[in-house]
Write a structure and sequence with these properties.
Blueprint (H helix, E strand, L loop, with lengths): L2 H41 L5 H11 L6 E4 L2 H6 L2 H8 L3 E3 L7 H14 L5 E6 L23 H10 L1 H9 L3 H6 L1 H11 L24 H9 L10 H16 L3 E6 L13 H13 L4 E4 L12 E3 L2 E2 L1 H21 L5
Parallel strand pairs: 1-2, 1-3, 3-4, 4-5
Antiparallel strand pairs: 6-7
């Protein structure tokens, strides 16, 4: 065999190897997209926990008459079963644990994009929420919903590179968030209950805990100094925007400050400023402000599992009071808590 034939054969062999390598890589990439899509589909089939609420929301299956919006206090303090029975109107809680108003707003916008507007909307307030989140709490919950423009754009504003990768690079999100997320996705694919997910009934998470001692840790941390909580105009602007969006859909809107353990008040150095900010943003945008922070429930520690959050027993009692005031709001305007 001549040297030219050998060179030609070597060239053909090299090209074949490159073609095979390219085909192998292409098949691998396609498989990654297929597997990623299957896992996302699995998460979107879950019915328990936060994924269950997200999935019902995006599917347009909620359509509540009374909508509860907020962070952890909305999540645990308002029992929508109680509200539904008292008002004879459907209630659902889309509380987003650990999340400030700049993340609650895109959740609400996504809700309104897929569900009819509520008749009554109540937005939870607390001492620590008037500052914008700089990162997403429990970020893995967002992975299946990055196709929702309001959600993706807000997350991208917090960390453009991270959330671009999670949306567009196959399997990156699952690798980033760990094996437990993949296990949940597989459970969704095979329609197996996600036993690790907490049960949210009408979106509400009932917490069966007694006093957990975190307030004692807080007191040791701040001592007699107390604490000043941020009041950021940007956070207030998100609250105002949510009120306007809800009222544009015909909803009556109230901001409510649920009971907190009364001993916490002496450590809240700018408590009056925070309450005044909520009251002002409510009334200036056509909503009402319901302040239950000094209610009789606030004086009984057995209704709380920490200074900011009510346990199941406390949530039931508070939801009865709240429901009565919402009934007045629906018929005559703002009640007096």
């Amino acid at each position: 065999m001549s040297s030219s034939d050998q060179a030609l054969r070597a060239d053909r062999s090299t090209r074949l190897a490159k073609t095979q390598a390219f085909a192998f890589c292409l098949i691998g990439i396609v498989l990654m997209f297929v597997i990623n899509g299957a896992l996302i589909s699995g998460l979107r089939r879950l019915h328990n926990g936060d994924f269950g609420v997200w999935n019902a929301l995006v599917a347009g299956d909620i359509n509540a008459d009374v909508l509860v919006i907020g962070a952890s206090r909305a999540l645990v303090d308002v029992d929508c079963e109680v509200v539904t029975k008292r008002l004879a109107q459907s209630c659902f809680d889309i509380g987003l644990d650990g999340s400030a108003y700049n993340l609650q707003q895109p959740l609400l916008e996504t809700y309104l994009a897929h569900n009819r507007p509520p008749r009554i909307a109540i937005v939870s307030a607390d001492i620590a929420s008037l500052s914008n989140a700089r990162e997403a709490y429990h970020p893995q919950q967002y992975l299946p919903y990055l196709d929702q423009p309001q959600v993706y754009e807000r997350l991208k504003s917090l960390d453009p590179t991270l959330w671009w990768k999670q949306r567009y690079l196959p399997l990156y999100g699952f690798a980033h968030h760990g094996l437990s997320l993949t296990i949940s996705a597989v459970q969704g694919l095979i329609k197996s209950p996600d036993s690790a997910a907490p049960t949210r009934v009408r979106g509400h998470l009932a917490v069966d805990l007694s006093w957990d001692g975190s307030f004692d840790n807080f007191m040791r941390e701040v001592g007699d100094r107390g604490k000043i909580f941020p009041v950021e105009p940007a956070a207030i602007a998100h609250v105002a925007a949510m009120i306007r969006e809800l009222r544009a859909g015909g909803a009556q809107v109230a901001i409510f400050y649920s009971p907190e353990w009364r001993e916490m008040h002496r450590f809240e150095l700018n408590r009056s400023e925070v309450l005044s900010s909520y009251r002002t943003v409510a009334t200036s945008n056509g909503a009402v402000f319901l302040d239950y922070s000094d209610s009789p429930l606030s004086f009984d520690r057995s209704y709380f599992y920490n200074s900011q959050h009510m346990n199941r027993r406390g949530a039931i009692l508070f939801s009865q009071v709240l429901s009565s005031d919402l009934a007045v709001l629906a018929t005559r305007g703002a009640p007096t808590p």
